[in-house]
Design brief:
This protein is mainly alpha-helical. The protein is built from 15 helices and no strands. The protein has a domain of 221 residues. Helix 2 runs antiparallel to helix 8, helix 3 packs antiparallel against helix 7 and helix 5 crosses helix 7. The longest helix has 29 residues.
C-alpha cells in the first residue's frame, strides 16, 4: 500500500497487469480442477510449498537472502497467515460449493473491505466521498449476489460464498499489515511470506487431510496444482511486486476489474459453469463500486464531458490515495 499519487503506467506495466489478471483469474480454474480430488488444505499446502521452493531458488539466484532476525520472521508468519493461509483455505473450501467464476467475482470485493479497514486502522487512508460511494455500491452488489439465497437459509452454497467473502476481509488486513515490508526487496518479501505459510500449513494439512489416506491423484490434478503454485502464486507474486514498485498500488488495483473476466471465461468454456442473472447484476454493481473507489474512470468522464471543470480539479485528484 502507498499513500502516494498515482504513478504512470507504461506499455510494459499494462501488459504485465493483463498477464497478472489471467494468472490470478486462472487460479480459480486450477483450484476447481484440483479440488475434484484433493482436500482444500492439501491444495493450499501444495500451492504455497511449491511456490516457496520456487521463490527461494529465485532469491538465491539473484544473490539475495532471507533475513535471519526473529522479529522479521514473526512478521512473515503474520503476513503469511493473513495473505495466504486464511484466504487460500477459505477460498479453496468455498470453491467446493460454488462455481469458480462466482468465487472470482466475490473475491473482487477485496478493495471494498480494504477501504473500510484502512479507514479504521490508518491515518492516511481515510474514506472520501467517492470511496464511500464505491463501498456502498460494491456491498450492494455483494448483497445482490447472495441475498436471495441467504434468505432461504445458510445452505452450503451460501456458506461457500460467505467463506470467499471472509477471505477478502483477510486480504484487506494483509494489505494494511504489509506496509511494514516496504524496506525489503519484493522477491524476498514474497518468498518469506509463502515460506512461513508453508510451515504453518504443514501440520494443519497432515492432521486434517493425511496424504496416506488419499487416492493417488490423476495427472490433470497434479497439472492444476503445479499451475496454481508456479504460475498463479510464484510468478503472480513476482509480477505483482514488479507493478507495485513501478506503477504504485492504485494502478495495481485495476487488476481487480480484470480477474473475474478470465475466471468466468475459463469456467464457462472449460468447466461448463453458468451463473444466474443476479450474479452478473452483482458483478456490475461491484464494478461500479471499484470504479468509484479508483476514481480515474469518473475523472476521465469529467475531462471528456466538462473540460473546464476538470481543469480545476487538481485538488480532488490530489486527494486520491493508493489502496
Amino acid at each position: 500500500m502507498s499513500a502516494g499519487i498515482n504513478k504512470v503506467m507504461g506499455p510494459i506495466e499494462w501488459l504485465l497487469l493483463v498477464i497478472l489478471s489471467i494468472l490470478w483469474g486462472g487460479s480459480f480454474f486450477f483450484a476447481k480442477v484440483a479440488l475434484a480430488e484433493l482436500h482444500p488444505f492439501t491444495l493450499v499446502l501444495c500451492r504455497v510449498g511449491l511456490a516457496a521452493l520456487t521463490l527461494n531458488l529465485a532469491v538465491l539466484m539473484r544473490g539475495e537472502r532471507l533475513p535471519g532476525d526473529l522479529r522479521q520472521w514473526c512478521a512473515f508468519f503474520a503476513m503469511g497467515a493473513l495473505n495466504n493461509l486464511v484466504p487460500f483455505s477459505l477460498i479453496s473450501w468455498g470453491q467446493t460449493q460454488i462455481a469458480s467464476g462466482l468465487a472470482a467475482i466475490l473475491n473482487a470485493a477485496t478493495p471494498l473491505f480494504t477501504v473500510v479497514v484502512a479507514h479504521v486502522l490508518t491515518k492516511d487512508e481515510r474514506l472520501t466521498t467517492g470511496r464511500g460511494t464505491g463501498v456502498i455500491l460494491g456491498f450492494a452488489g455483494v448483497a445482490a449476489m447472495i441475498g436471495p439465497e441467504a434468505l432461504r437459509g445458510l445452505d452450503l452454497h451460501v456458506l461457500g460464498e460467505i467463506a470467499v467473502l471472509a477471505a477478502t476481509l483477510a486480504y484487506a488486513f494483509a494489505g494494511i499489515f504489509g506496509r511494514r515490508f516496504r524496506g525489503l526487496p519484493p522477491l524476498v518479501t514474497a518468498a518469506g511470506q509463502v515460506t512461513a505459510t508453508t510451515i504453518l500449513m504443514l501440520p494443519i494439512a497432515l492432521v486434517v487431510a493425511p496424504p496416506w489416506t488419499m487416492a493417488v491423484p490423476r495427472f490433470e490434478t497434479w497439472g492444476a496444482v503445479v499451475a496454481i503454485a508456479l504460475l498463479s502464486t510464484a510468478v503472480g507474486y513476482t509480477i505483482y511486486f514488479r507493478i507495485l514498485a513501478v506503477a504504485g498500488a492504485t494502478n495495481l488495483l485495476l487488476v481487480t476489474f480484470l480477474i473475474p473476466v478470465s475466471a468466468l471465461l475459463l469456467g464457462a468454456t472449460l468447466l461448463g459453469e453458468r451463473l444466474d442473472a443476479h450474479h452478473f447484476a452483482g458483478m456490475a454493481l461491484i464494478g461500479l463500486g471499484l470504479a468509484a473507489i479508483d476514481g480515474r474512470p469518473l475523472a476521465f468522464l469529467k475531462r471528456r464531458m466538462w473540460p473546464a471543470t476538470a481543469a480545476g480539479g487538481g485538488s480532488e485528484r490530489a486527494e486520491q490515495r493508493a489502496l
